[in-house]
Fold each of these.
Amino acid sequence: MSAADKSPAVSPFDDALRLMPGPVAVIGVAGDETAGGLTAAWVTRVSMDPVLLLVSIGHTRFTWELLSGTTEFTVSVLADGQVPEARLFGLNSRRDVDKWSQVDHVVMGDRTPALERCTARYLCKLQDRFTTGDHDCIIGRVTAAEVVDGPPALPLRAADYAPA
């Protein structure tokens, strides 16, 4: 993680919030000259018609910057056992490491990277974006979806992402 990706101070709510279940996914974005990605555990469906996903991304993340200049992103839901991929995309910044060069991936849409191996992946067209504290909620309309390896998905377990 780069110096720009500073973690906020630990709050008295952290222990309880870490128990909230959620999927772990890698969000992929292609900028003008580079591709970025990050691990996100704040991902959920917010509409069935149209099919919309919400991803929450911190303002200090390089991928957040890339999303300002693009209209699409991918969501690759990790499989149980893909902790190394979650750690790669969650503990390193694209400012320092080309994460996509270290994993097998496919291109969805025009040029947006997604993991080759995962439980499922989605291509989303950016529909809305709004600020919620230190994160932006990114709403994407699903334009393509594929079941790749199927369940089980990797659950959020805080111990998996503690820096070594």
Amino acid sequence: MSSHFFLYAKNIFFSEGVRSAVADLLASEEDVTFSKFEHFSQLVDILRLPLQKDERHWILCDIDSLPDDRINALHTIKEYYDKKNLQLVILLGENNISLFFALHSIFPQASWLLKNESLDNFLRFIQDVDSVVEEKIFFSRSLINYTQQKWLKRDFKNSISGDEWWLMEEIFKGKSLSKISSEQQIDVRRLSRCKRELMKKLNAKNNVELFNAFKHIVATPCA
């Protein structure tokens, strides 16, 4: 069975480093290819590609590279990726690791890789996903340690929920809570409570601090 790795990442230094590492690791395998791109429309085109019975596509998607309307982008990915022999790997940076549980609720069948893993751990991850024929979920070593600690301690106070993320994305569009309430038919008091809980999690005393803290979590790296 042939394997095709596709990397979606806007940071050219990161994407080139991944390409080089994967190329060196899999150089002896003739049935493995690697491609990289930085535009979301290209990612959607790849997800739409028809798959042959004897091939697998591994889609490595960098969360920091998503377009501004991230929630819709994530659901667009979800719509297309759930195909036989197509595997999704979500790439997380340290800045957005608090979004892990919200993301996992959207992509429960995806695999997960932290971008700051050591080279040895990264190569081991790639070897693992390339060597397994059947569909399987993989977690990079540092992310396993992180989730284990959170579950064992029942410590989720700093994890961003899907509702909190969605609300901040709407606010980033310039919408007030009352406008969001009117558009979505959600009680404005519920939205206000959600916002207050998020401010508490991020230790933000006002809107400016809240926006700055959350922009760091979903920051887009420079190319």
Amino acid sequence: MFPLSRFKSLSLVVVSLVAAAGVAAARTPDTPAVRVHLSVFNNAGIPADTLAQAATRASAILAQSGVELDWLGCARPDPANFSQRVTPCSVVGWPHQLSVRILPHGRSVGADIFGEAFLDESGRGVYANVYYNNLAANREHTQLSDGDMLGFVIAHEVGHLLLGSNSHSPSGLMQGRWDSAALHSALRHTLFFTDAQSATLRTRLYSGDLTPSHSVLLSRISP
């Protein structure tokens, strides 16, 4: 067993910024897909084929819940460019426009932390980090490629951004710790959101279609 996120002492992490079952149902004609745009910044400089594999895996996981993922590959920012030009990669708004940054490692997280999702006081978030070197160095998923594992981690963090606070579950993709059974499901490509989580994802995204995008203002508090 190894930890994936951290919510307080847990580890794929939800960092709440104000306070410290079953397989997901497949899409049917009665559950039309909703869409999420995901800006992905490859600050870790991982190979293009690994990133493509991650995009395929994350997209398949969300599609299983009736959510279409538009993956937007974003260039690493130029530190010498101080312009504030708005680009498709810089636009965020809950729930349909989210951002994930793939970093080599975190400055203040342990080696067993693979990702963090940042939420505001309402339990909504648009930003998440994934720590690629931590993921790649872990030897408990040796039968899974780093690209597939990265896709599972990204889907998990997107789940936190959309599902909100306290969204870890005892089974499925949103487990706070993935044991050997979860990894076996991942290897068989059957590690998904639960039925209840899939319904919540669609409900939140449908409701987002009817209201203006929610601006998320973050002020980090250490867990």
Amino acid sequence: MQVFSIWKIKMLQFIKSTVAFIGVKFYSAANKVISSPSIQKSVAAFWLGFYAVSDAIASSKGAGGFSKATTEIQSYETPVSNLMKAIAAVIVLVGAFNVYFKMQNGDQDVKKTVMMTIGGCVAFIAMSEALPMFFK
């Protein structure tokens, strides 16, 4: 029991002396680094930049920009919806001529062409009606 406590005391003394030695070395190295003029200038530049950036972020000018952009995009909703309906009308006209010419020539895939034309038209009409839901 006594051997263990002597060993424990010696180990604690060794640890304290090692920590003290490392502490002194670290303190002297840190003091050399801090007293260096280039490090002082770098730290000053960092804090100046940090202050400038934090001031710019704190002014929150970006929030106003986002709300303005949202308003602008919402103003395009009706014209884009009308444009999509006009494209659907063009699809119907082109598809009707395509179906007519295929019927006149006796092609076998008239049914396929009719279904593709109707599908394209319905898709564009559905997208033009669903467009306002993305902006709410």
